[in-house]
Write a structure and sequence with these properties.
mainly alpha, 84 residues
Length: 84
């Protein structure tokens, strides 16, 4: 299924944002567990999720930067989401 989400942040970043994770709690937790342990997606997808596309953003995620709400101890491989 292909659609278009009303997401001004996504539009401003030429389609690199997202409107959040949708699914059951178990489904979202399984997705997050897979991102953490490397079993949930091929390495190329993980690399894409962490690829900087503008400023402090990757494809839909925040990346560590000075003053980031994720904290100063976050490593370079860290991704986050503010819940906007």
């Amino acid at each position: 299924m292909v659609g278009e989400v009303h997401d001004e942040n996504c539009w401003a970043m030429q389609g690199t944002g997202h409107a959040g994770l949708f699914g059951t709690v178990d489904g979202v937790l399984d997705f997050a567990r897979g991102l953490l342990d490397g079993t949930g997606a091929p390495p190329s997808v993980i690399t894409l999720l962490r690829t900087r596309v503008g400023g402090d953003r990757a494809h839909g995620w925040d990346l560590p930067h000075a003053g980031w709400s994720g904290g100063d101890l976050a490593g370079e491989g860290t991704i986050g989401h503010t819940g906007f």
